[in-house]
Amino acid sequence: MRIPILKLHNYLLISIQTDLDDKTAIQFQEDLLSKIHKSGATGVVIDLTSVDIIDSFIAKVLGDVVTMSDLMGAKVVLTGIQPAVAMTLIDLGIHLKDVQTALDLEQGLIKLRQELEE
Amino acid sequence: MDFQSCVKINREWDIVGARQIGREHAKKIGFGTVDQARIATAISELARNIYLYADTGKICFEIINEIDRKGLWILAVDNGPGIADISQVMEDGFSTSGGLGAGLPGVKRLMDQFDIISETGKGTEIRTVKWVRK
User: Fold this and answer.
1) Which of B15, B41, B93 has the CB atom closest to A21's CB atom?
2) Average pLDDT over chain A, rounded to an integer
3) The pairing of beta strand A43-47 with beta strand A75-79
4) What is the pLDDT of residue B31?
């Protein structure tokens, strides 16, 4: 299974709509980095509205992809983390401190624009 | 104790299968959305540990129906290498696989009861319970 990555101006938009298994998550990591490389995108929004579980492995993959994208010069914002997901992440002891987040896709794009204009 | 249903963990995809079945059980018993997510996440961590360290094993579910409370009992069993130092794996941030080391201590916090029995060379059994909040 591949997660679609959409390009909009200088941004890449991803909406994860599936229950993420490990392979799909790793594949997504690779796909996103190569898409950043090819498109020259400066900002990425990963929308997690439809994701109802993030375990420690998926959290690591997401945290890593943010750091990796940052190394390449693209800022990533995670959006739409559900209340139940936020609560379980904290129970797991995962704080994703260096990760930018926003309530929804719209807020995520606003945040990216602000960050990139600074 | 006989468990109602078990899911074998042989392949990576079984991790997703186990947590989906666990969530269905949780929903049926009457857990709220947050506890459903907690249970599914705990199962995911337990199933991944089996897949990563023991190759194969199983996750079993049993609904607990007592006079004054209901709950879900989850059992994770494998015949893997076992855990030599349990206190070490219960520490936050300890990992031998390059992960976050959040798995087992995380499961303990996500669930209400947590017991682990492990014998080197024989395998590991983790029993954990979540009670429905009233």
Assistant:
1) B15
2) 94
3) parallel
4) 97
- What does the domain layout of chain A look like in residue ranges? 6-117
- The answer to whether A67 contacts chain B (CB < 8 Å) is no
Q: Which of B16, B45, B99 sits opposite A19 (nearest CB)?
A: B16
Q: Give CA separation, B122 vs A7, A115, B9, B51, in Å.
A: 51, 53, 17, 16
Any idea which of A88-97, B45-54, B95-104 has the lowest mean pLDDT? B95-104
CA–CA separation, A3 and A20 (whole Å): 10
Question: What number is the average pLDDT over the span B4-25?
Answer: 93
Asked whether this complex has an ipTM greater than 0.85, the answer is yes
Annotation: CATH topology of A6-117: Transcription Regulator spoIIAA (3.30.750)
- Chain B within 8 Å of A55 (Cβ-Cβ)? yes
Q: How confident is the model at residue B65 (pLDDT cuts 50, 70, 90)?
A: very high
Model pLDDT for residues A27-65, shown as the tens digit of each residue:
999 999 999 999 999 999 999 999 999 999 999 999 999
Could you give the CA distance from residue B51 to residue A23 in angstroms, rounded to a whole number?
Answer: 13
Which homologous superfamily does the CATH classification assign to the domain defined by B5-131? Histidine kinase-like ATPase, C-terminal domain (3.30.565.10)
Supply the pLDDT for residue B2: 60
Q: Do A85 and B37 touch (CB under 8 A)?
A: yes
3-class SS letters over B21-42: HHHHHHHHHCCCHHHHHHHHHH
**B contacts of A82 (beta carbons < 8 Å):** 37
